[in-house]
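We modelled the chain as a single entity of 271 amino acids. Its sequence is:
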Amino acid sequence: MTITLTDFVTIGREQRHAQRNPAARAFYTALGPLSTHARIRVGAVLRAIEDLRLPDTAAVLEAGSGRGYAILNLARRHPGWACVGVELDPAFVDDSRRIAAAEGLDNVRFVAASLVDHAEPDAAYDLILSGDVLEHIVEDEAVMASMYRWLTPGGRLVLHLPKRHQIARRWFPSFKRYIVHDHVRDEYTEDEIRDKLGRAGFRIVSITPTFGPPGELAFELNQLYWDRPLLRVPIALATLPVALPLAYLDFKLPKREGNCFLVEAYKPARP
């Protein structure tokens, strides 16, 4: 399956089922989430996974499933897959379970747990995905080692990660001081992620950039409120008609560099 324009635009629209306020439910039904960042990240991850052409009965785990954008999408697109989302925030887990029930998705379950402490059987999954999660975890190499154990021999890993040294590639001056306060490290370099995954036992297939100039501009337009939290909704709404086409353009166009990257790796059949 390919990721179409409709697929891209509707990423996250299932979140309407988690909204208790009727106005919020109507908003998500019409527009989905305001975040263009989520669409670019999840779109890139979904496209990479669809290109893998996994078997119809694949076992799939999302490490750090957040609001469930990716794993719910995969469960919907592949009814034969057995999907699991592991997420630290119990509120996100509750919402994801509510969405799965509302959509009749009986092939996905959610677990509230820290990836550092969570245990899964060895060689249980054909695919593990994780989007913008490892930069929040001090023990990232321990989590990579766990992912390696949880994959079947030949199993695939798809990661999306922020790239270090982004500050030089900003459109708006205010973003020169943009800081994500819950990152525990200054993102990653390609060499660093190659080294860390290599020590865990993985073989790298590819590292490709995401969030090129159109995607970065979409992100900044969408996040202009970052230092004006009271203006979050009106600013995001006002910029969405421009930010969303830019996000899709970034998703479609090939890139030589970007502020994030998508990593594809695998667990060798023989160590």
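As a brief sanity check on the tokenised model: The first helix runs from residue 5 to 9. The chain is about 40% helix and 20% strand.
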